[in-house]
Structure formats: C-alpha cells, structure tokens
Amino acid sequence: MRLDPIQHAEFVTGRRQAALVDLWASTGFAAALSDVTGPHVYDYGELPVATVAITLYDVRRHVLIENGRLRRDGPVSAGRFRIGQPGRSVLVDAVPNVRSGKLLLLYLGDALLGEIGAAAGRAKPVELADRAWDVEDPLLALAARRIVEASEATGAGRSLLAEQLAYTLALHLSDRYAARSAPADSDRQGLRAGMPARIADLVRADPGRAITLAEMAKVAGLSPSRFIGSFKRATGLTPHRFVVEQRVLAAQDMLAGSDRPIAEIALAAGFSSQSHLGTAFRAVTGSSPALFRRNRRG
Question: What pLDDT is attached to residue 188?
Fold first, then answer.
C-alpha cells in the first residue's frame, strides 16, 4: 500500500493535520502539524519510514512502547524529539502538562535520505540513529517553533519560509543523527554559473505568485536538499532570503514607476500586507517604501 504521510499522521493523532510540507511523491519528505488539547494515545503501528516527532509542549507523562515492550515512562520537555525507526511498532500514551500545544511530525523517506546521503558522499541512503526524547537540541527546537510560526502566517513568502525551514530541519537531523556508513567517491554537484540570475528571473516574472523550493531546485537541476546548500554557498543567501530580496526589487520598480497605493503594491510583489512589505523593505534597503518613493521622485 502506498504511504500517504498526512493520512498516516491523521490516523495516528486522531486529528486533522495541517500539511506544512507535502512533497512525498516527488522528494520523499512530508511535515505535519497537530494540535494537542489533552491526554491521547498515539498508535503509530509499524513505522513505514523514519518518523521524527517533536513536541512543542511539556509532557507530564510519556509512555513509549516499542514492539510490545515498555521503553520509556517519564516526562518530556518541550523541544525534545524522538526518531522512530522503520519497521518498529510504536505506541505512545501521552499526558500533556498544558491545556494545548503543537506536535510536529516529520516523515523522511528513502528518496530524501538517499539524496542527502549522496550529497554527503555516502554510498547508501542516510540511516537515522535511534533517539527517544533523550537529547536536547536547541537548534532543532528553535527551527520547529519557527516552522509553526511561518506556517501560521499568511502570504506566499511565508509558506516558502516554512518549506525551507522544514527542509533545513530534515538536513540537520540527517547530518547530526545519522548512523555511520561508508562514504562514496562522488563529486558534490553545485550550482551552475548564471543559475541565481535564472531563479531571479523566475521570481521577478510574477513576484506575487507562490514559489516553492522544489520549483527553484528544478530550474537549477538539483534536488531540493542539494539546492539549499549549493545556493547558500553560491550566493551567501538562503533561497527564502533571495526570494524576499527579489520581491523587494520588484516592489521598488512598482513604487518608482506608478502611483499605485503601497498596500496594493505589497500584494502584487508577493507580500501579505503593507506592514509585511515595510519590514522586508527596511531589512533589505534600510529605508521604507514611502521614503524610497519620495526620494526617487525628488
């Protein structure tokens, strides 16, 4: 039976899931977010792929049963995580210490782990080490919270940020918690010359349109996991930051060449509001949209 990670997450949690990232068919990666409102039994069944659960709330009591045997019974602090191993039967009985919270579930399939392994010079797909709420990882906890924040905000630029953060989190997990394997003799494919300009053209052609990492990576001829690192090495910017800067440049053209209201220009340039444009505009140029327009017109 073909795996649908979002449906699996809904079955496990018994709740409707917000599909933060669903690129399972193309890249073997999905991220789901669940609202937790009280004690719950999570029956994962036999895990089909490596599955990472990150709790963003304190758990007063967490009972973990693997393959019918009690593995852990104790509290779990917000920000801790579990890496579930494929093929293991997992049952969790959790009692939260708060009225409500968020649970982030990541599904990492062979396609993604194979890409990451090849990018790291490994002969086989990355295999994640076994972890069960016993490691404190501030970067992982922060990234998970930022994914939630980005997913709850509106606007095309924010959804790209959520996607990039989720990929970065998957890469961090694969790098830091990978089981050891033999490296392969392979060159790391990088970003070809002129590719940032092509991606800039892609964004500027319709700055108000939502753009994904998968789309940019396809233009570059790379997998999304390789594209993130290659793009940062080539430009000094993350893909999300690059897209934001291109949208600010598009907004500058509109501000200088028309009398359209700034709020209207913000939406046309891919920002969720005039305030969102103002924040990004000041971060990129050091000025406000209104001041930029006045200075350009003398």
Answer: 46
User: Looking at this protein, which amino acid is placed at residue 126?
Assistant: V
87 φψ region: left (φ > 0), alpha (ψ -120 to 50), beta (else): left
Lowest mean pLDDT of 154-163, 182-191, 200-209, 231-240, name the range: 182-191
Distance CA 81, CA 36 (A): 16
Region 53-59: mean pLDDT is: 90
Contacts 24+ apart (CB under 8 A), 244-247: 244/157, 244/280, 244/283, 244/284, 245/284, 246/200, 246/203, 246/204, 246/207, 247/157, 247/203, 247/207, 247/271, 247/280
DSSP designation for 91: E
Give me the pLDDT at residue 62, please: 92
Q: Answer whether 0.70 is exceeded by the pTM.
A: no
Q: Is a pLDDT exceeding 80 seen at residue 167?
A: no
Could you tell me how far CA 42 lies from the centroid of its own chain?
23
**How high is the pLDDT of residue 263?**
93
Beta strand ranges found along 97-193 (DSSP E): 101-108, 131-132
In terms of Cα–Cα distance, which of 112, 105, 97, 101 is closest to 81?
A: 105
Q: What's phi and psi for 208, nearest 5 deg? A: -80, -10
Give the three-class secondary structure for 231. helix
The pLDDT value recorded for residue 289 is 93
Q: Are 231 and 196 in contact (CB under 8 A)?
A: yes
Cα torsion for 62, 106, 165, 143, to the nearest 10°? 10
Element (H, E) at 164: helix 156-176
Structure tokens at 138: 């501030």
